[in-house]
Each structure stands twice: as structure tokens, then as C-alpha cells.
Amino acid sequence: MRHKLPRRKPPVVHTDRPPVALRNSHIVARVASDNVVRVGQAPAGLQDIYHRLLTMSWVQFLIVSSAVYVLANLLFAAAYFVQPGSIMNARPGSYWDAFFFSVETFATVGYGVLSPATDYANWVMTLETFVGLVTVAATTGMVFARISRPTARVKFASVAVVAMHEGQPTLMIRMGNERRSQIVDATVTMAILRSRTTPEGRFTRRFEDLKLIRAKTPIFAISFTAMHVVDQHSPLFGMSPADLQAGEIELLVTVTGLEETLGQTVHARASYVAAEILIGRRYVDIFGLTDDGRRGIDYSKFDLSEPDINM
Does any domain span residue 21? Predict the structure, then answer.
């Protein structure tokens, strides 16, 4: 059960140093629960409602859309119900006849049984028709935007590992394309977010880019492992797990490319805090052959790692 933040007593954010309990939390969220608590920010209100409707889950979107639809019809039905006899052929005193007439008007169905009987009802019907047209157009546009929005189904390993590769300790992050279509001209970037204290005593968090052995691949079809050599030129050189914790290191990786089926640019990202960067371990091999001699990939082992005997 999740606990809601109290409304009258918001949490205190210490700007000099983050609380110890939060040092293993993700600044760059992997899931919704990783988001940083925002204190003192003015509510967006209706200014960002379009973005909220696009980013919420389909279940939430359908619930909100249904609630707005039902509420609008309930309100217009009440407006018709205010004047008795405003709807021709409606049963006297029947609110539900007014409601279903509102539904017909809102959706511009018009079965022809119920119709406005007074000037008042005609004005209400005119307003409701306009509201219905705008609402249907907006909802249709948002549904189309949600369906047509390009997304990449890229699976990231749950942990990053540091293992020996060609005689050098190498930071690795394994990625997998979960679609059968390919990502063309994929570009991968990797960086760390590090906490530092300036000579003036000011606490800061800065990004530092990590150079990859290979940052681009012509085709991202099945799996790709981003690798960064931890040598004397690396910001991670000489760091132990304790140093990663003390520096509040967060590792970020992004992949961008052209989805061949959609013909549009897609992207995906992941982040790893210090506890999710395992030194001296390597990923378990996921490629092999099936019984009938075909090449295969075992996604059930995608997140698994094992000790690296070479470190």
C-alpha cells in the first residue's frame, strides 16, 4: 500500500545534501515510482492536461474519457429536466428519458423518437451539439495520437556489470530489441550523473559522458551491449562499490534510431544507481542453438549475471 504525501505538511528537501535514504533513488526515472518528489512547484492545472492524457495508461485514459462523457450527459440531462415538457415524446418526469436524449444529441445520433419541444430545449440542444462535436474531435485526436505515437520496445538488463573484456575492465549494459522489426542506424549514449562539492562548498550534480567502444550500430535487430572501457581516462577509473555509493553515481544510457516499420525515430532510456552496478560480474550468455539447429536467444536469462573469474 502506497502512502500519500501529507497535504498540510509537505516533505522537507535539504538542498545542501540529499537525504541518505534517497541516495539510491533514480534521478532519471525508470518507472513512475522512481520520480523525484517535487516540493514547492506550482500545480500545472489544466495547462498540461493534453500531455497528461497522452502519458497516462490506457486504462486511466478510458476511465477519464468515460467519466467525462457520462458527466457531460448527466449535466445536459439535468438542463433538459429543468423545464417539464421540453422533450417531445418523453415520459413526464422521467430524468432518464432526458439523459438518453442527451446521449443521442451528444453523439449526433438522433433516432427521431425524442426531439426538442421548446425554444429552451433547442438552445440547450444547440450548445450540447457544439460541446459534443468538440469533445468527440478532441478525444478522437488523442486516441489517434496515442496509437500512432512511435515507441521502442527496448529491454534493458536490470543491472549493469563491470567485467574484463579484451584484457581491460569494461562497463557493460545489455539491451534487447523486443520487436521483430529492426531499429536502423541506432545510436547509443552513456553518461554518469555524479555528486560533487565545489571548492566553495556548494553541492552539485553533473553529467559526465562515457566513451563507448562502439556507439552506433547499422542494425539493432536482437541484442546490443554498450561497453565503456574503465581505464585511466574514464571518470569511473579506480572506483570501488563504496566509491560509487559515496559519489551517488547514477548511470544513464539512451538508444535512438529509426524504426523500419514506422519509419519514425524512436528512443528508449534506462538508468542504474550505484547498487545496480555490479563490479566483477558478467552477463550470462543468452545466445545458443535450438534442438533443430536454429539460432536462438533466451530472454529468460537476459538479466542474469555471473562472477567474472578474470577479475
Answer: no
